[in-house]
Amino acid sequence: MTTVWEVGVPESGARPLVLAEADGPVLTVTLNRPEKRNATNAEVLCRLYDAWRRLDEDDTLRVAILTGRGGTFCAGMDLAEIGRLRAGVRDNEWIIRLQDDPGISLAAYLKRYRPTKPIILAAEGYARAGGTEILQGTDIRVAGESAVFGVTEVRRGLFPMAGSAVRLRRQTGYAVAAEMLLTGEDLPARRAYELGLVNHVVPDGQALAKAREIADRIARNGPLAVKAILATLRETECLPEAEAFPIEERHGNAVMRSRDAVEGPTAFLEKREPVFTGS
Prior knowledge:
Layout: E1 2-5, E2 18-23, E3 26-31, H1 42-57, E4 63-68, H2 79-87, H3 93-100, H4 103-108, E5 119-123, E6 126-128, H5 130-135, E7 140-144, E8 148-150, H6 164-172, H7 174-183, E9 187-188, H8 189-194, E10 200-202, H9 207-219, H10 223-235, H11 241-256, H12 259-269
Parallel strand pairs: 3-4, 4-5, 5-7, 6-8, 7-10
Antiparallel strand pairs: 1-2, 2-3, 8-9
Helix pairs in contact: 1-3, 6-7, 10-11
């Protein structure tokens, strides 16, 4: 059964600019502003943040997919919205919420808040500026073969505030990150794959299907193990082994003491699918 969440839908009934659809244990989050190449504004950022909170708080959900409508992923922040925020305009509920809680913006971009469950990116077309910034906060990435990535803020005299000046070099290497950040030039999907910035390049129009395939595989696994492995990957980034191994052991021991850790081997010996409860 598919459930669509429209958190905070305006009374006017205007279409939401982000859709969050739950299909079993998989939450698909779709940027829904195709006429603007899914550029983010206050509403998009608030709804993204709400979707990430929903992913964390709903125990029936195990993994999320982030994608965009209309053959493109995200062209970054709507420049007109930047001007409105700077001017202190307060003419709708979303911009008021963002101004009252500025942390929502960077949480939406997966910089200051990352759910404890994995997020898979399915990108078609443009993924520029904020589109590539949010990519770096996801865990697994699928791109259509014509997709292009780029941190283009420098071309507008802006700074990429959602983490790229720190994260990108860790995910591609220093020289590649420096060229991308300082020139603002695009990176084709195939080159992004060669650099390890994306996991899969698929025919155009197939990114979401491939992401769903990966999500379904993750959702079949033990949820405690998935969360613990993800936490270990994140918490040990850039740490030397001597500091990283105690973190790994802490997460691993908690999983190995769980009921799921008994259920998995038992199901294997009994030649049946495991029934994980997350306990």
